[in-house]
Write a structure and sequence with these properties.
This protein is mostly beta strands and 322 residues long. It has two domains: 69 residues, Sandwich (Immunoglobulin-like); 229 residues, BT2081, beta-jelly-roll domain (Jelly Rolls, Sandwich). It is built from three helices and 26 strands. The protein starts with 8 loop residues before the first strand and ends with a strand.
């Protein structure tokens, strides 16, 4: 939906979809941006339709077998201080391949990992970590992909977690990010992100060709607030923590969001490659449409560089508003 403040909540059993819309948005002019149906199923609504969500709206779907199903679309006014769903990372569901991914279910999660890509090598670089007392976290470990991975040009797999969707149809063993659609709907202006983590880098940081590097492996944790419109993405705010310092005990930290364009005091890696930021005037007040949050046990894992054994544990991600 246009102006969506968070991921829609889908209840398959009751056939309802609940969508959060920021306050002040005209609910009678919500654009249906995407509708996903199984093969040969049809619906009486299509992408691009303008929906009136001032009251609950029914969408009728005819399944492949000819049966009719009525889905109820409900709109709720979003909080002005939204959080990331399952930010405490306590919910993990079992996939059809018998491993765990963060979220309530495949249909109701904002989180993805690189596991669908590494599972073909019988590797899982991101798993739930039990902190005790029913408190789970995400454990990300940089793994050696062995002979088969090296054959594909993928000698390691860095553990990672992100807001977004892993699309296995676009899987490319030589490009870990090709199958990832980063980002989820989000409409808040936090000043900081708070999180709990520990990190122990592996002992031998190597490039893709197995050459030892003269610096330590480093973890990466970052969040982008973005404005997406008309196929373009503009950066509104940036929060980033990259560190190779060993932190063996779990510690809670806060990272500032920097709104607007990043100046030369910030490293280039923090800046958008295309240089697209929201305008300075808009940066002072505009709401984002999406958030991209990423954490990885090896900062250059997407280029298959890192130290085998690097371990990042992440928990309790909280958006701070002041």
């Amino acid at each position: 939906m246009s102006n969506q403040a968070s991921q829609a909540l889908i209840n398959v059993a009751e056939q309802t979809v609940t969508v959060e819309i920021p306050g002040g948005v005209n609910l009678s002019e919500i654009i249906l941006q995407k509708i996903e149906l199984s093969s040969f199923a049809t619906a009486d609504a299509a992408a691009g339709d303008v929906l009136n969500l001032e009251d609950d709206l029914e969408i009728n779907v005819v399944a492949e077998d000819g049966s009719m199903h009525t889905w109820l679309i409900q709109a709720e006014v979003a909080s002005a201080t939204p959080q990331l769903a399952n930010g405490d990372l306590n919910l993990w569901y079992k996939t059809n391949s018998d491993y765990y991914e963060p979220g309530e279910s495949k249909d109701n999660t904002i989180w993805g990992t690189g596991n669908p890509g590494t599972f073909i090598l019988n590797k899982l670089a991101t798993i739930p970590f039990d902190r005790g007392n029913d408190n789970l976290a995400a454990q990300m470990i940089t793994l050696d992909n062995g002979f088969l991975g090296s054959t594909f040009g993928a000698p390691i797999a860095a553990g990672s977690i992100f807001t977004g969707v892993f699309n296995s149809d676009n899987l490319d063993p030589k490009d870990p990010e090709a199958a990832i659609d980063f980002g989820m709907p989000f409409a808040g202006r936090p000043t900081k992100v708070q999180l709990t983590y520990s990190y122990v880098p592996g002992s031998d940081n190597q490039d893709k060709d197995g050459n030892s590097l003269p610096y330590s492996d480093m973890m990466d944790i970052y969040a982008f607030l973005e404005v997406r419109s008309g196929g373009a993405t503009e950066r509104l705010a940036t929060a980033w923590l990259r560190s190779g310092e060993e932190q063996s005990d779990l510690v809670t930290v806060t990272i500032d969001f920097v709104y607007g364009e990043l100046d030369d005091s910030f490293p280039d890696y923090m800046k958008p490659e295309d240089g697209n930021y929201v305008s300075p005037d808009s940066a002072a007040f505009i709401l984002p449409t999406h958030i991209t949050f990423v954490a990885s046990s090896s900062f250059a894992g997407a280029e298959f560089a890192g130290a085998v054994g690097s371990e990042l544990i992440l928990d309790d991600i909280v958006m701070v508003y002041e």
